């Protein structure tokens, strides 16, 4: 006998609750990217070009995030994807990682190439675009801040925008330093700093993506604590084969085999996992005390 429980008939991923904010952020970032790219090409600033490259990554990943939200709830007509398309959000976050690393490598290569020449960037254009970019990024961060703590996909977008905000600060600093000192090398040095920051953020997000794909227990949830809590339920004789993982951010899943002596024990276990551990989708299989069905499985 088995029991199944989820908190609602239509599961909604964490990122889905912030769809409108992602859409507004996408529009802001896409519009500014076009402005910054033109300004970077006209000014000759590597720092500005690097920030524009990261803005391109933002446009791509925010677009992918919105596409993922559209595809996630759609049902597979062939019935092969029994978990639906929710993992698309995780793949979109993985795409964000690859783009961020690509931008970081591009900026680094371009910066190294400039050590043999002195390109004088237009500091006035750099300063104006840097300030505008900082305003756009701060607004975008405010839009995404709440969702970043709930969704891996929104967190990926938030980190992209955060990196761009710091990139805009770097562009402003480079513009001021080039203007004050007259040395174009400040532009190159700050561009390298922007590349390093993007790379670090990409690695951090990449580790989170790998944890989800490896089906590790969700952050903040300890399987050992769940085991103890389930065993403390009145009428619970045994708990084994406990598995806890994330389908995507905000959608935690658990399964276990249990041996009980009371008819209400399964329902109590489902409520405990939902209310105390935030696990909305639970599958429990009951077994008799003298015979384990799982003994006949291969793993």
From TrEMBL:
Compartments, record wording: Membrane
Membrane-protein topology: Multi-pass membrane protein
Gene Ontology cellular-component terms listed: plasma membrane
PANTHER family found in the cross-reference section: CATION EFFLUX PROTEIN/ ZINC TRANSPORTER (PTHR11562), RE54080P-RELATED (PTHR11562:SF17)
Protein name (database record): Cation diffusion facilitator family transporter
First-listed, main subcellular location of the protein, grouped into a coarse class: membrane
Record NCBIfam families: CDF
Ranges for domain Cation efflux protein cytoplasmic: 218-288
Highest taxon in the source lineage: Bacteria
Keywords in alphabetical order: Ion transport, Membrane, Transmembrane, Transmembrane helix, Transport
Residue span(s) of domain Cation efflux protein transmembrane: 24-213
Single GO MF descriptor: zinc ion transmembrane transporter activity
Keyword Lipid metabolism attributed: no
InterPro entries cross-referenced by the UniProt entry: Cation_efflux, Cation_efflux_CTD, Cation_efflux_CTD_sf, Cation_efflux_TM, Cation_efflux_TMD_sf, CDF/SLC30A
Recorded family membership: Belongs to the cation diffusion facilitator (CDF) transporter (TC 2.A.4) family. SLC30A subfamily.
Segments traversing the membrane: 21-41, 53-74, 86-109, 121-144, 156-178, 184-204
């Amino acid at each position: 006998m088995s029991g199944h429980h989820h908190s609602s008939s239509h599961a909604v991923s964490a990122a889905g609750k912030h769809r409108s904010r992602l859409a507004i952020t996408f529009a802001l970032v896409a519009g500014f990217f076009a402005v910054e790219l033109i300004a970077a090409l006209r000014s000759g600033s590597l720092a500005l070009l690097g920030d524009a490259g990261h803005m391109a990554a933002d446009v791509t990943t925010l677009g992918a995030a919105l596409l993922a939200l559209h595809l996630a709830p759609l049902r597979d007509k062939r019935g092969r994807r029994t978990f639906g398309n929710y993992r698309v959000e995780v793949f979109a976050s993985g795409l964000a990682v690859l783009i961020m690393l690509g931008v970081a490598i591009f900026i680094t290569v371009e910066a190294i190439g400039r050590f043999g020449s002195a390109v004088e960037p237009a500091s006035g254009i750099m300063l104006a675009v840097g300030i505008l970019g900082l305003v756009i990024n701060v607004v975008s961060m405010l839009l995404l801040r709440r969702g970043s703590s709930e969704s891996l996909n929104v967190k990926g977008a938030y980190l992209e925008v955060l990196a761009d905000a710091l990139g805009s600060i770097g562009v402003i600093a480079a513009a001021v330093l080039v203007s004050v000192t007259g040395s174009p090398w400040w532009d190159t040095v700050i561009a390298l700093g922007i590349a390093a920051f993007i790379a670090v953020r990409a690695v951090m997000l990449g580790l989170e993506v790998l944890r989800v794909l490896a089906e590790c227990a969700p952050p903040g949830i300890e399987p050992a604590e769940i085991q103890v809590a389930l065993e403390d339920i009145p009428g619970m004789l045994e708990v084994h084969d406990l598995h806890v993982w994330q389908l995507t951010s905000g959608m935690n899943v658990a399964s276990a085999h249990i041996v009980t002596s009371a008819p209400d024990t399964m329902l109590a276990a489902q409520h405990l996992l939902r209310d105390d551990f935030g696990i909305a989708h639970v599958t429990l299989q009951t077994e008799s005390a003298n015979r384990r069905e799982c003994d006949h499985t291969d793993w």
